[in-house]
Predict the 3D structure of the following.
Amino acid sequence: MNKSRLVMVGNGMAGVRTIEELLKIAPDHYDITIFGAEPHPNYNRILLSPVLAGEMTVQDIILNDLSWYEKNGIRLHAGKTVSRIDRARRRVEADDGTVAEYDRLLLATGSTPFRLPIPGNDLPGVIGYRDIKDTDEMIDAARRHRHAVVIGGGLLGLEAANGLKLRGMEVTVVHLGPWLLERQLDEVAGRLLQQSLEERGLRFLLQKHTERLVAGESGRVAAVRFKDGSEIPADLVVMAAGIRPNTALAEGAGLHCDRGIVVNDTLQTFDPRIYAVGECVSHRGTAYGLVAPLFEQAKVCANHLAQFGIGRYTGSVTSTKLKVTGIDLFSAGDFMGGGDSEEIVLHDAAGGVYKKLVIKDNKLVGGVLYGDTADGPWYFQLLKDGKDIHDIRDHLLFGQMSGGDAGHQGQNKAAQMADSAEVCGCNGVTKGTIVRAIKEKGLFTLDEVKKHTKAASSCGSCAGLVEQILASTIGGAYTPAKSEKKPVCACTDHSHQEVRDTIRQQHLTSIPAVIRFMEWRTADGCEKCRPALNYYLISTWPHEAKDDPQSRFVNERAHANIQKDGTYSVVPRLWGGLATPAELRAIADAAEKYQVPTVKITGGQRIDLLGVRKEDLPSMWADLNQAGLVSGHAYGKSIRTVKTCVGSEHCRFGTQKAMDMGVQLERMLFDMWSPHKVKLAVSGCPRNCAEAGIKDVGVIGVDSGYELYVAGNGGIKTEVAQFLAKVRDDEEVKEYSGAFLQLYREEGFYLERTVHYVQRVGLDHVKARVVEDAANRKALYGRLLDALKDAADPWAERVQGELKREFETIEL
Amino acid sequence: MSEWKKVCRLDEIPPQGARVVRHPGGDIAVFRTAGDEVFALHDKCPHKGGPLSQGIVHGRQVACPLHGWNIELESGEAVAPDSGACGRFVVRVEGGEVYLRV
């Protein structure tokens, strides 16, 4: 069968990203031809500024080299400009006579710098700033000439001016607006920016109308004259007064254009065979000039080209970073405020820090940061998610870390970190390594950085920092995905929420059924999605969905914790941290019999036997079972421990029987699987010796009953548990905690701790369902007890039957 | 001199799972995919020596349980952007029995 033919006009970032997305989902669908007017393969146009500034070379910024085109069977016509589209015969013609026929045509013709319609705008030495050729010309001019004038104080203009200054030219920026970057900054931030650029030696002429460019004796531009009669010398004039979508080709073919090629939400033009993406496009009246929205378009367009027909592009909120080394600036959304919005402002003129957040209806709608932009990505995420910020309003301006943070030595300013500074403590990745990978490999997302550098791929606590580095390296190209829309893994575009909902609504009870129904791209998932699916299935349909051990991480399959040398650790359950002398003796005997090299008391009041060989596990468990000991689940996304203090059983301060309450809770929750690990603690009085304030569920005895706290965390980032309810007796402790944990089990995303779950849904959401609605609480509690009714010791199950084979090695 | 040795019956390896074969040159992991294909590799991740036999098998890959590298079962090569390779062995299935050439 002949493949359909796809022709793309334009070989830039948006277009090639569309092709990449297309190859990912439908690699064999099309025979692809690409025309590019420039003689280069696809390169990272965003990084032209560092090339101009001498921080990178052209070779560094190539995104797809020629071998990529070859490997994917793409015919590349580089250096050929398409001059005509013949829609009737479905073919395009290039200026050198090359003709290509298409079944689908993709226009990605980009934009060109706007040239002011003034006399002298075509003199030698007058250029736009758009591509490698312009950049080379500027570098060349800097070698031979002295005076540069940049017309336009926007992002591109300032980056050009900075680069030329670094190359030794005297640079003046002429700007029509009242302050710099008036489309990204308010006046205060604009002035701060101007001040620091002036300190670097740039000169500014604001609110200045250029009248004409004057030629010198050689015919080359020599001066810029203004309407007020003044004149300044200029050997190089860079026009950076905005861009215009390249629509001539489309217009010539009779396609509807209106300040861009007009497309619908599927990126289709008025001719259904012709799609368009990128800067040449006008979508819902907006033409985007930043790369992040263009990548969103690329993804949707690829999906429709692949004939999957999923997804619509509905426009983007954009954020901005200026890529001038050493200047920190961030803006997003509606940063001007006014009208019925409110503003929170911090302005430290001497310190060079300015922050303004614009709030409307308890939501962040925009902001400007200058001098300290570390929290830019966080604010942008809040803005995109439309999150209610009412609860954090009083410390919102102080950033994400103001809630208290235990990691990274308080280091949270990405731009100021030295290249040798360690970002990811787990994998020993420095800032320099990350920046290099972003630039050399052309990375745009947190996931890509994780894959290539391993930073943020273990505990994830540095993910925010990595996002900041990403943002400060690639500027406006960085865009976080909307949190709840993040796909489960590369096998699918569906989010955790969509998967959970579908499993419930469609009554899916097996992993193959989910993968088929939700159209996974892989035949049997991957190591990321299968454990999540397995959990969603068994928590949604207990007793009905069958647990799949092969979709569990080895720890949950072997019921022991794998160590770096491939041995395992064994932790018997000591209910509430209590043990009898006989149990201690059995543990000691097992340790000796199986030559356990290390015996350690854990943080959860248990005993850890480390360094056990896998084939010894079943017989060791059998021995421990004999003494009445069972699995402590010290390895699972499951109930771990209930830590207790001595309580009123012995303690002279105790008000409640903490040990007894702890044992009751632990017995109730035995064998409970959850989105992530779950730890509890019970203290007998407010002195709180069991440290209940940093547990998923913390119970604190008071004279009149118990106080319940939820969503605490003692791990990577210490989070204090929040007060849920005051209850009277043991039964209520079990009912409320059980209901809370069941809610988390039903609504939490896989690998989401209670703290992150509660942050996502809000404590009010939890209280409404667990505290205020008694009937719902009882229903939740009932479902938890039902799910756990046949709980059995996994060790005892593994010691006999089919599953035992897992532990046997084969001798040849 | 290498020779074919009988390992076990195919149904003694769990689908999407593996079994460990003891060998003087180091443990060998014998994998069975969801589609009943069988592959054998050195049970040692090229990254930090993790036991690949204990990883999650998906498609024709296994994810190492220690740090999540993915290894191609057929070639023993790490999936990009990671790089490295572990030794592979020839296996065949005949009459429901798995044979390994060592």
